[in-house]
Amino acid sequence: MIVNKNDSILNIKDLHVHYRTYDGFAKVLDGVNLWVGKGEKVGLVGEAGCGKTTTMRTVLRILPENAVVPKGEIFYHGEDILKMKPQKLNKVRTQGISMIFQEPAAALNPVFTIGTQMFDVIRYSDSGKGRSKEEIKELAVKAIGEVYIPDPERILNSYPGQLSGGMKQRICIAMAIVTERELLIADEPGTSLDVTILDQVHRLLRGLVEKKGMSLIMITHSLGVAREMTDRIYVMYAGNIVETAETKELFKNPLHPYTLGLLESVPRLTGGGVAEGIYGRIPDYFSPPKGCRFHPRCRLSEEKCREEKPLLKDVGDGHQVACFKVQGVI
Amino acid sequence: MKLSSYVIKRLLYSIFVLLGLSIVIFIIARVVPGDPARLALGPRAPQFAVDALREEMHLDKSLPVQYFYWIKGVATGDLGKSLITKRNVVEDIAEFLPATLELVLVSALFVIVFSIFFGALAARYKDTWVDSFIRVMAYTGVAVPSFVLAVIFLLLFGYIWPIIPVLGRLSAGIQPPPTITGLITIDSLLTGQLDVFFDALKHLILPALALAVGPLFQEARIVRSAMTENMGKDYLAAAVGFGMPDHVITGKYLLKPSLIPAVSVMGLDIASLMSNAFLVEVIFNWPGISRYGMEAMLRKDLNAISAVIIVFGLIFVLVNILVDLIVAYLDPRIRLGGRSS
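ok -> structure tokens follow
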């Protein structure tokens, strides 16, 4: 489903996030722009350490305490989450947005049973408030059924350490959908799982989101996964969105050199040898490169790329790219 | 493993620990120079009387034989006679142990309650003056031994600012309640004598505090560091992200995992309160077993020394079993031992 930008439920504008460390400020996010429409499934793709998780944690305001947000806005239904009073923010967390964390083993508290944790999620959510114990348990049992885990009674009495990685991942999904939420943020769910389980988890997630009519932001480092799961893709590099387009359009007509590099690095069954990939690595966030942050790794970079930061520009049909070479400026 | 079988197993192990301990202390007490019989009877006693006492105490036999006599007595509940009090050691312990237990229990209560309170406070207000204050208190608490603190308390509240009693277990003129457990606070409550209860409580505060301050702030530091470490965990971010209220996040999802490392250390510290209690008991004129044990050692009262050490050892072992049970209760990873459901 493709939605007009004016109908967006979440709209991140020029978001900057820095981390304060002993070595100075790590300037990770450098003006992220991203929006999600109602019922839309959006992918956020980029290599490890590019700021995908930081962006999404900022949305729920669950960044580590050394993070600062010097600039930017995150509009949720027209209101800036970053400026919200605790009560409003609580509404966002309890009825608006829920998040599935990357590492299911870390996202579940090891010393409480699944039941205890899940019941609290329901009890303190907007639609679970004031419900009786029986109703809460019923909801939890239903959610565990929805992620295809048998014997919910036993699961509720289990501790995370007693479940397999795949089960824990499913439980994390169940916790995120157990009460109504409008937007689900899935941070590379199942990256630590083996491929077959990973595929199941992705299917499950897509099915649930479609069934419940939720919006989805799917964080992944794999364009292949994004292609399967999403309507529209944001490609992120070193704290910037470098390209965004509808999924089909992006694969038909990738423009940014980084996107091209990502696509090339996907191994193909028919290809000869290992893909070339992208030379180099994510820049040092303490002193990021001037101009376009990708220029040290870019085959096409020129003088202007080293001096000036390219901004996202429309190149037709909502396809946006932040590259001087592609925009035809140089 | 079932709880009961676990406890029984641990108790059986501890019998061996205590046996080993008894052998060690038995030998050490007897190897130290000085004739206990002579010490007991005084320098002017005739030699034949000393010899008679030596024979009565089997001191004329070899060490293994002596140990055999002693352990035979222990097995039947007879720990021998004390040379100082001229009574059965068992009676002495029954008289002096409750006072120390009461002191140590109140002290332990201080340690547990305040270490968690201050630890949570320091974690909650990390890097503010609250945190710094608790850190300074921790360093001071470690550096200042409990008997120094006891003397300071004595000076402060006995002399400069006498708002609270400083000596003994009860004020003069107050009749102790009939002995049921030997713990005056509990006995007075059981017999409904509230005035006695409060008087006993007042007498407990200073010595218990002097004992507790050191371990208390150390434990607070452990609680703090565990809490600050766990604050960065994903499961906590998740709880915040789900919009759970502050008291649930801090008081439940953060506190429980953070208590696990603190409880293990607390157990050891609380057990060693027993032995730390000695000087505090002397200073506050507290008729406890630590003081009794120390006098026994100075006067080479062999049976009393062995008995006191065995009682301390037993308490240490029991506290450790209890701590392991608490840790297992708090941490399902230990209780369930991996992935068996």
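Chain B has one domain: 89-336.
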